[in-house]
Amino acid sequence: MKKLFLFMLFFSVTAFAQVDKIYKHNGEIVNGKVIKLEEYTIVFKYDGEDAENTLSKYAIEKIVYGKSGRVEEVTEKIVVSSEDDWEKVVILEDKAYISGLIKEGEVRGKTGLINYHTGNTGDKKAEKKLKMAAAAMGCPFILQTADKSTVGGTSNGLGGSQAIKKGVAYKY
């Protein structure tokens, strides 16, 4: 009976050690099996399940592999504490890149109707305003939903240009 108990104990410890641990920046730990690492996402299966799930690499700090114990650092946490940290904000262009992040709200950046910006500088100014709006919310990520520039008579009667960028702000 004692041998059976020791065998069961050894088997359960060995089986548990095979689980990969995914450490998210928000403090959550996901137990499962990492299937593949892609450029911006990680595909995994929860422990005891067969369905494949996806998480953005931006949401993940590190992975500890159960079989080998190897630790793989994935991304550094981006800390945005005020509008002054706007340069740290990352603009994402694919919905897959936000998987595992929390939606905070919509943000918008635009240049005025009457301005002295060329198309390129107006675009940069609108992007800065977009990032500043996200940073004011404490969000290090924006999923860009619209990027529009108008030039000449179509933007206003004065022949100027206007850049408008919209997005949704996300945090850990």
Helix content: 10-25%
Q: How many strand units?
A: 10
Distance, first to last CA: 49 Å
pLDDT averaged over residues: 85
Read across the widest sheet, the strand sequence of neighbours is 4-3-2-1-5-6
> Which ranges are low-confidence, i.e. pLDDT below 50, for 5 or more consecutive residues?
none
**Largest sheet composition:** 6 strands, antiparallel
Q: Would you summarize the structure shown here?
A:
The chain is an alpha+beta fold.
How would you describe this structure to a colleague?
The chain is of the alpha+beta class and 172 residues long. The chain has helices at residues 2-17, 119-136; strands at 20-24, 29-37, 41-46, 52-56, 60-64, 71-73, 90-92, 102-110, 141-151, 161-171. The strands form two sheets. A six-stranded antiparallel sheet has the order 4-3-2-1-5-6, with no helix packed on it. The radius of gyration is 23 Å and the shape is elongated. It starts with a helix and ends with a strand.
